[in-house]
Amino acid sequence: MSDHLIEPRALAEILGSTEVCDIRWRINDPGYGRRSYEAGHIPGAIRVDLDDDLSAPPGPGRHPLPTPARFAATLGRLGLMPTSNVVVYDDVSGRVAARMWWMLRSIGHDSVRVLNGGFRAWEEAGLPVSIADSAPQPAVYPTPDRFEGVVGIDDLDDRTVVDVREAERYQGLAEPVDPIPGHIPGAINLPSGLSLKDGVFKSIDELDAIYGQLDSPVMSCGSGVVACHSALAMAVAGRPIPDVYIGSYSEWSRSGRPVAAGDQP
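The chain above was modelled as a monomer; its predicted structure follows.
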């Protein structure tokens, strides 16, 4: 279907030559990823933690990027090298795993795909599950110069900001995490769920109908995680990978800047 996705049975055929990363995670439940991994994972998968491995400590946003040096050190600890063929997965249709996909792509590591449908699709396909803890062989991953495609809070003027949170959060009707409900003024709302049907990505034509009208957008969400999932959806549709505002609404809502509410930008 795409250079950015892989189907469960296709992954099963290349497990021995692929580095698989399990990135299951739940907000406000820091032990969820470890418990899920220990209960069963794709054979040979390495557990990756969103908070510890793919983020710096919170501030100003909830999931800022680590430094390139720290990310390279993490990749080396996970046994990854620039030549590694990587597949990432979670159990929420890629909404978390796409963060690692985007981070790798943004440092020029192109051989990375997201498991379409995630762990649920793997199990539903009747494929094997392991409870063995995988211990990767440490490697040396060269430190990249920077993360490409990162937009900061001061770089949003004159850009089309796409808020991919649920409509209720965009409109300010509900806000379970951040201090002020609403959205960045001028941002349009295309919830990440629009790209999915029954937990897997829609067809290329369907995705292009959703995202094809966007011209060089900046993806934003709550904390720069699910925004990467919508960036993935655009890539699957054959569009260039868009920029991501990593601080997203978690940074904006704490910055003292104006906040909009309602269903209009």
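The first strand starts at residue 5 and ends at 6.
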